[in-house]
Amino acid sequence: MPAYFAYGANLDRIGMAQRCPGSHVVAPARLADYRFFIMVDGYASLRPEQGAVVHGLLWQLAPDDLAALDAYEEIGAGLYRRLTLSVMHDAGVADAIVYVGRSRETGESRPGYMENVLAAATLGGLPEAYLRELRGWLPATSRPSAAMA
């Protein structure tokens, strides 16, 4: 069963249960030397950046679920490409599938997208400092005011 590192919409356990019913969360995990960003298509991606860290969830995928995940990530249409990268978690290091967007251009998230990512990241127990970083990608209309921060 392949390992998969989720850092965007697939942090959502309910959505993953619908797309990949045979899969389960293993642990929170970290990917070193990459930075989260929103690509021009409006979805999350990663770009290499020395010293940066992306937090997410490590999933164990059922073999049948990999095709469903490839379809969801629009591999065939070229939205994302599938890589295998080493991620760290409390029990050690794992080689995991990571979907990285083909676009390198920064954009704004689609309506509701970052709100969902942030909610799932919070429920997933990702570190508060990282949640603050993710909040920076919320559309201006969804960001908490300075008084609320």
Describe the secondary-structure layout.
Layout lengths: L2 E4 L6 H7 L4 E15 L5 E17 L2 H10 L7 E10 L2 E10 L11 H11 L4 H8 L14
Antiparallel strand pairs: 1-3, 2-3, 2-4, 4-5
Helix pairs in contact: 3-4
Pfam families: AIG2_2
Keywords: Lyase
GO molecular function: gamma-glutamylcyclotransferase activity
Give a quick rundown of the structure.
With 149 residues, this protein is α+β, with helices and mostly antiparallel strands. It contains 4 helices and 5 strands; from the N terminus they run βαββαββαα. β4 and β5 form a beta hairpin.
Task: Describe the protein in words.
This protein has helices spanning 13-19, 63-72, 113-123, 128-135; strands spanning 3-6, 24-38, 44-60, 80-89, 92-101. It is of the alpha+beta class and 149 residues long. The mean pLDDT is 93. Helix content is 24%, strand content 38%. The protein is built from four helices and five strands. The longest helix has 11 residues, at 113-123.
